[in-house]
């Protein structure tokens, strides 16, 4: 659990931070990032100045959470929050 051991799920405030997450993730994998699609806010409450949605995403009002798709350059997709994916935590700055 990110909040127990670190700060929270990782955020990608710009392309550079999204690339840092991509560098540690094997190609073809998905991972949770800390963007609440429903409120369009990061886990710390700030609004994203940068987004990297895959074409056609977000596409479902029932899907409240966001994954980065590393089979597609780390682009983001909305998906149900109860799906099982790896996740990245942060403890402050990248």
UniProtKB/TrEMBL annotation:
It holds the Pfam family Lectin_C. Residues 1-90 form the C-type lectin domain. PROSITE patterns: C_TYPE_LECTIN_2 (PS50041). This is C-type lectin domain-containing protein. It comes from Poecilia mexicana. The lineage of its organism: Eukaryota, Metazoa, Chordata, Craniata, Vertebrata.
């Amino acid at each position: 659990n990110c909040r127990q051991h670190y700060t929270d799920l990782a955020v990608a405030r710009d392309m550079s931070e999204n690339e840092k997450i991509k560098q540690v993730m094997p190609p073809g994998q998905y991972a949770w990032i800390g963007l609440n699609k429903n409120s369009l806010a990061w886990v710390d409450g700030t609004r994203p100045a940068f987004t990297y949605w895959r074409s056609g995403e977000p596409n479902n009002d029932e899907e409240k959470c966001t994954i980065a798709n590393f089979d597609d350059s780390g682009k983001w997709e909305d998906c149900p929050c109860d799906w099982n994916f790896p996740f990245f935590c942060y403890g402050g700055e990248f």
